[in-house]
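Dig into this one:

. . .
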Amino acid sequence: TALHNVKNGALAQKGYAENIECIIKETLLVANKVGISLEFQTMLNTVNQVIANTAENYSSMNQDVKSHKQTEIDFISGYVIKEGLKLNISTPVCQSLYDQIKAL
């Protein structure tokens, strides 16, 4: 939402589905490797439910970017990337998202 300056509900559009699924898959690889048992379909369902429940909201990261404040990207995608590096797990979609947010 921060990259495209859209409300949370916009993420329900098909154009975002592939990115969302890739982010979930990368996060799952890292989580499962460190002993956190998560399943793809459960996470996807949860993400889609949050999108639906908060459809009219702007995410806090979106608001931070608009206000030129520090975002929580280091603690979200940054954490997945950092753990992935430790575990030799590639996280290119998370890295791209992280880099784009940092560039804003």
